[in-house]
Amino acid sequence: GDMQIDIVSVFPDYFEVLNVGLFGKAIERGLLDVHTHDLRSWTHDVHHSVDDTPVGGGAGMVMKPEVWAECLDDLLGFEPPSITAASNETQHSNASAPISNNTTDEPAATSENALPKPVLIFPNPSAPLFTQRDATELSHASHLLFGCGRYEGYDARIPCYYRAQGVDVREYSIGDYVLNGGEVAVSVMLEAITRLIPGFMGNPDSIAEESYTGSNALLEHYQYTKPAIWRGMGVPEVLTSGDHGKVDRFRRDEAIAHTDQVRPDLIRQMDCKALDKADRKT
Ligand code: ADE
């Protein structure tokens, strides 16, 4: 089915990039229903300010909760709470709790148990890492709503509040480096998610065999195409043998050796059952 995607940002023009390539085609074909929104259109002051100085001091600015809440209430179809003036003494219960997406105990969604309610996603360099597993799960959602933070971040009560309202809220980092804002991270996550939607790719087989998919998290084996000899360099002879069994074994051995060399963390994470008898010799 088709997926609704809403993206909120102070740089909505950035997402023109989504009209390029397979993603653009998927929008044209009606597979993806994408709407970008300018966060500043939910401000009421002349300066359209979306940020303020951090409570407790320090450098940089923090995105204000009021503006985000007006925007997210609108996009989620929520009524703003009728009692807006909560007591100043009311302590926010878990704004300082570690970020948890609360998905670890749940089985990954399949097309049979698609995520029916909107998923609200905030890119955040201090959040858990976004992985292929998350991409697979989110490719079954019917509605994704991304909130791009800028500056030094956003008020921690925003995700907390919507989580308390029963919204499926996720915060993800795309890697251990710092970007200027969430826009690039959202485009990375969107590309990883949407290419897994049935009908998005021309050739769905190309998904099944890739790195980070399936029970084995091995990196892919090296690939070669013609010519057989290029600038004096040949290709591994077994690949031209026509013996599919030998080719598969060679590729798997090579994938294990390569993964062990560049990403030993992936080998350590692997389910032992995913390694066969012949693998153990590698
Ligand atoms: N915002 C800034 N840096 C980020 C990162 N690495 N991942 C997600 N969002 C970010």
Write the layout of secondary structure elements.
Elements: E1 3-9, H1 21-28, E2 32-38, E3 51-52, E4 62-63, H2 65-76, E5 119-123, H3 132-138, E6 143-147, H4 157-164, E7 168-172, H5 183-194, H6 205-208, H7 244-262, H8 264-269, H9 277-281
Parallel strand pairs: 1-2, 1-6, 5-6, 5-7
Antiparallel strand pairs: 3-4
The chain binds adenine.
Give keywords.
about 280 residues, alpha/beta, Alpha/beta knot, Trp Operon Repressor, Chain A, five-stranded parallel beta sheet, 9 helices, about 30% helix, binds adenine
Q: Within the largest sheet, what's the order of strands? A: 2-1-6-5-7
CATH class of the largest domain: Alpha Beta
End-to-end C-alpha gap? 43 Å
Largest beta-sheet details: 5 strands, parallel
Overall tally of structural domains: 2
Question: Could you write a compact summary of the structure shown?
Answer:
By secondary structure, this protein is of the alpha/beta class. It has helices spanning 21-28, 65-76, 132-138, 157-164, 183-194, 205-208, 244-262, 264-269, 277-281; strands at residues 3-9, 32-38, 51-52, 62-63, 119-123, 143-147, 168-172.
Describe the structure.
This is tRNA (guanine-N(1)-)-methyltransferase. GO terms for molecular function: tRNA (guanine(37)-N1)-methyltransferase activity. S-adenosyl-L-methionine binds at residues 149, 174-179. Belongs to the RNA methyltransferase TrmD family. Its EC number is 2.1.1.228. The structure is a single chain. Helix 3 (132-138) crosses helix 5 (183-194). Helix 3 links the parallel strand 5 (119-123) and strand 6 (143-147). The longest helix is centred in the last third of the chain and has 19 residues, at 244-262. 29% of the residues lie in helices and 12% in strands. It has nine helices and seven strands. The chain starts with a strand and ends with a helix. It has helices at residues 21-28, 65-76, 132-138, 157-164, 183-194, 205-208, 244-262, 264-269, 277-281, and strands spanning 3-9, 32-38, 51-52, 62-63, 119-123, 143-147, 168-172. It is α/β, with parallel strands linked by helices and 282 residues long. The strands form two sheets. A five-stranded parallel beta sheet has the order 2-1-6-5-7, with helices on both faces. Strands 3-4 form a two-stranded antiparallel ribbon. It is elongated. It folds into two domains: 3-194, SPOUT methyltransferase, trefoil knot domain (Alpha/beta knot, 3-Layer(aba) Sandwich), CATH 3.40.1280; 215-281, tRNA(m1g37)methyltransferase, domain 2 (Trp Operon Repressor, Chain A), CATH 1.10.1270.
